[in-house]
Write a structure and sequence with these properties.
The chain has 391 residues and is of the alpha/beta class. The protein has helices at 21-31, 39-45, 58-75, 93-102, 119-135, 157-176, 195-200, 205-210, 220-239, 266-271, 293-296, 298-309, 324-341; strands at 9-14, 81-86, 107-112, 146-149, 184-191, 246-251, 280-284, 313-316. The longest helix has 20 residues, at 157-176. The relative contact order is 0.18.
């Protein structure tokens, strides 16, 4: 029996991005659907795509990740179909799901490209799946297709070790330029989200009182902080220093200026560094597993330019999707979910000691913050303002 039984297909879930200049405006209309953003504003915001020929790097990143997953699955003897579906551009979730179903798949396991739990990175993908299943009812009756999702995987061994290696390499590159570790600031970076969504990413006090088992369901920010707390001593040992000077910063804020989002932006953090102490920065994009637009534009272009204007050395650590141990850890969590589906016992291996540990998402997890919290049956939240312009 396959270690992924009872599943007969895996589907990578991602945000999507344009494949050429003609795709940019329709893609951005999809990404901002329901928010009343005029095309004139979308065209202004899409200027950064011109630097990349109108092509989002996320698509090639996902193709490469699918190839890495295929090789890891083959090495484990898992002959299982692999598919791909996006929220905002082709192949849409419904298109990827239909392709797998037409090939005979009936029970499918979904793997989001977001490692952390939040509305946009977890619950909204569940909504995408639900909407796709309804769309496919013209061919497949309700109940014929079943789609499950893996748990958040920011705290896997593979994620942890890949981050340590990547950050080490970035420090080594700065050392070659003459910078000493004590002159370097490490900035862990992730995608900013609205404060309401951050609040909705963890159970409320009322929910914790009613459902004590949810105590491990920590918020989006707390998930990042837990990983950072685990990484710091490992990096200090690997770099041979007593203390790594580090902070968490955010990038890729979108939406109206009056909306409150997580801060501080990486460019603001760079501008506020004590130049008497800090001469260079390592930017570690722990919130992203691949080099998509938030990385290659917001970090490699904008933040790098800010650092150059400030006279700071700058190295961006690699994202983790090319690391074999990270890819292996993705298959590990698939096998964990499959064991749960078979009714078998399994061990959740994690490096932080904190959740979210749920193998099956609780109905009330990862709310958008736009609706009141109501424990009980799943209630799909309205589209969030977090649909970023970039991917």
């Amino acid at each position: 029996m396959s270690s992924l039984a009872p599943y007969d297909a895996i589907m990578l879930l991602s945000y999507g991005g344009p494949n050429g200049p003609e795709d940019v405006l329709p893609f951005m209309r999809n990404a901002t659907r329901g928010r009343g953003v005029p095309d004139e504003r979308l065209l202004q915001v899409s200027e950064h795509y011109k630097l990349f020929g109108g092509v989002s790097p996320i698509n090639e990143c996902n193709r490469r990740l699918l190839g890495h997953l295929r090789r890891e699955l083959d090495q484990r003897g898992c002959d299982i179909a692999l598919g791909w579906g996006n929220r905002n551009w082709h192949p849409f979730v419904s298109e990827g799901l239909r392709e797998l179903a037409d090939a005979g798949a009936r029970r499918i396991l979904a793997l989001p490209t977001s490692a952390y739990a939040s509305y946009s990175g977890c619950r909204q993908y569940r909504e995408d799946i639900a909407a796709a299943l309804v769309e496919l009812e013209d061919t497949y009756a309700p109940g014929v297709l079943t789609v499950d999702k893996v748990r958040p995987y920011y705290n896997t061994d593979g994620m942890f070790n890949a981050q340590v290696r990547s950050i080490q390499v970035a420090y080594a590159k700065l050392a070659e330029q003459g910078f000493k570790p004590q002159q370097i600031k490490l900035l862990y970076v992730t995608h900013s989200i609205p404060l309401a969504m951050e609040a909705g990413s963890a159970p409320s006090a009322e929910e914790l009182e009613r459902f004590p088992r949810l105590a491990n369901e920590i918020s989006y920010v707390a998930q990042h902080q837990a990983l950072i707390e685990a990484l710091q001593p490992a990096l200090e040992w690997a770099l041979g220093v007593k203390q790594v000077n580090a902070d968490l910063a955010y990038c890729s804020r979108s939406g109206p200026p009056h909306a409150k989002w997580l801060e501080s932006d990486i460019n603001d953090v760079l501008a506020q560094l004590d130049r008497d102490q800090i001469q260079a920065v390592v930017v570690a994009p722990i919130g992203f597993i691949t080099d998509h637009m938030e990385v290659v534009y917001d970090l490699d272009t904008e933040a790098a330019q800010t650092a150059a204007e400030l006279g700071l050395g700058y190295e961006r650590a690699d994202t983790v999707s090319e690391d074999p141990e990270f890819v292996s850890s993705l298959v590990d969590i698939m096998e964990e979910r499959a064991a749960h589906a078979r009714g078998e016992s399994y061990e959740i291996v994690n490096t932080t000691g904190t959740g979210p540990f749920h193998t099956v998402c609780p109905p009330q997890c990862c709310r958008s913050g736009a609706t009141p919290s109501r424990p009980g049956p799943d209630r799909f939240a309205p589209a969030s303002a977090f649909n970023s312009f970039r991917s």
